[in-house]
User: Fold these one by one.
Assistant:
Number 1:
Amino acid sequence: MYNQKLPPEQAEKISRLNAARPVKVVAVTGGKGGVGKTTVSANLAVAIAARGRDVMLVDADFGLANVDVLLGLHTRFHLGHVLRGECTLEDVIVTGPHGLQVVPAATGVKHMANLSAAEHAGIIRAFSDLYHSVDVLVIDTAAGLHDSVVTFTQTAHHVLVVVCDEPASITDAYALIKVLSREHGVQRFQILANQTRRPGEGPDLYQKIRRVCDRFLNVSLEYAGAVPFDDYLRRAVQRQAAVVEVYPSAISSVALKNLAIKADKWSVPQGARGHLEFFVERMVGAQIGPSAVLQ
Ligand SMILES: Nc1ncnc2c1ncn2[C@@H]1O[C@H](COP(=O)(O)OP(=O)(O)O)[C@@H](O)[C@H]1O
Ligand SMILES: [Mg+2]
């Protein structure tokens, strides 16, 4: 257990805080690139933060990091620097709207084959020092079935699958659900229709996916809602800001804020999986994500 690697007072602090505050982990995924994972993650995180929660947004798309760009945040460091002892986690985290804490992706990462015990403990300690102030952790995952997608979704309490009504997106979302459920024990998924162009498209899309999943897989699906295609959202991207902030009454903003209200009500299972340091330990243990360092 990682606690054994920590000084007693640190371990005690962690168990005290553990008892007090579980963190809700939401992974945003979707199989295909360009469906809107980053847009949804960033706006969902901002909208939940606007509701008064302490939210952390982790950019886990190591290939194409863009949460910081989307939110117009300037980052100097990433987790690779923390591992090399060049800065602290506090230096890596940038603050977005409503106190949202953003952990930018490490760009140009290389998975480390052997993370040293000191680095392992260092990362966990860095997060453990912070986690008391996190209610919700939102993770923007990479496209495809990258190892990191598997780990993040396995560790999350809620897996939000972003889908568009186009064959490639539906096929990829189904493939993702199939592999995650059959090979990695992830059984519950929330389906979010994005870039919808007519009323009823969201539920129709959900039913399409549901029919094929019911037939071939043993999974539990829920409909998380629909975010309409919206030019205001694109304008917000141009302005490097969250649409929920700059165009709060745009149709996409209303939908994203409704999603935040829903997500706020999603339960957090009590027990070992409810805590940030456990989540981080899983990430580090799997030697991906923050354990990845620059070449
Ligand atoms: N609801 C929407 N309406 C209009 N444009 C959207 C919507 N959702 C996403 N987009 C646009 O689609 C593109 C891809 O979105 P992004 O969030 O980067 O996808 P992903 O992270 O899945 O690759 C971006 O240019 C974004 O502005
Ligand atoms: Mg993305």
Number 2:
Amino acid sequence: MTDVFRAEVRDWLAAHVPARPLPSLDTAEGFEAHRAWERELAAARLAVVTWPAAYGGRDATLAQWLVFEEEYWAAGAPARVGQNGLSLLAPTLFAFGSPEQRDRLLPRMAGAQDIWAQAWSEPDAGSDLAAIRSRGVRAAGGWLVSGTKTWCSRGAFADRAFGLFRTDPALERHRGLSYLLFSLRAPGVTVRPIRQLGGRTGFAEIFLDEVFVPDRDVVGAPGDGWRIAMSTASHERGLSLRSPGRFLAAAGRLVWLWRRSGGDAALEEQVADAWIRARAYQLHTQATADRLAAGGTLGAEASLGKVFWSELDLALHETALDLLGPWAEVRDGPDGRWLEDYLFALAGPIYAGTNEIQRTLIAERLLGLPREAPSR
Ligand SMILES: Cc1cc2nc3c(=O)[nH]c(=O)nc-3n(C[C@H](O)[C@H](O)[C@H](O)COP(=O)(O)OP(=O)(O)OC[C@H]3O[C@@H](n4cnc5c(N)ncnc54)[C@H](O)[C@@H]3O)c2cc1C
């Protein structure tokens, strides 16, 4: 069954992956080219394989999804511009959304009619997400939302966003928050692109000035946003955001690069280490998928995976740059992808919750170590 599926995916990708890489999705042109690619995937029912058929999926198992991902990355297929919606919001809607929300939002997400941004971080609330200040004030039939969100990946060109807002100012921190969905083109929304380390401007700040969010775009109950957001976060750190296929493909390319450079003995160990760690992550993820398929939950263990893949990604790309030597800096050359991907790998220990915070979660929730005393 899995072999048949693997063969189908491999054949389809071999026939459809663009011969030349698409322009970066952090540019307007690249964003639309990636949207068109998402539509091709959707037409082949390969955009969201684990979703129910009614929403454009194939009811595939997690094991099949891992196979899909391995083939996808091995084929060098384009980055998934719909990632925030597909990997983060969709699992949240399956768990907490209403049937009406699922019917209305998921098919448009699968077909890339709506590409979503995650609007959580604020200028004074990153690691300490419960410090958010953006607020929603009750209005007839919905909420009027105001505040500033920042570091929104794909935010400059995306269509809609999911965010956390303080809807009960009488309650503190984790309480009184609501999980709201809004259009990035709604009246009162201003999107300001942020230039990234690599020079592109796909990131954005979002300014909201009394933006109307109807009741039907509240996920779960008003005030229950923190619990729902933590479910999204465990997907972000856990299985769906960074599959082993991504790192297996990169490790394979690293081995190829090492061979091409004449088998540099000084870097042999780092190359082997990257390959072994990618394979270890694959096996660990397969075990997690089996546990979930047997009715288990993800929980704080997601933090282990997040620290592991982000550190692996960085070490792997540093080794590639060492192998390339001075050529590593030639961004427009045939090996330019290594530098691009290295710049992005630098962010891995920061996004999806910084690794310092993940280590605290691992210490307290998995190892049962005492909580850190507040500093005086
Ligand atoms: C590439 C990238 C994409 C992103 N995409 C999105 C997105 O789409 N949507 C979104 O909402 N946000 C996004 N973010 C933002 C990201 O979630 C935050 O940057 C992250 O949560 C850290 O918050 P901060 O930047 O405010 O840093 P801070 O929270 O100010 O942390 C600064 C430093 O202090 C450390 N620190 C803070 N508190 C503690 C503590 N209690 N114990 C130990 N160390 C601590 C942190 O680990 C970090 O090293 C993205 C970030 C990056 C880099």
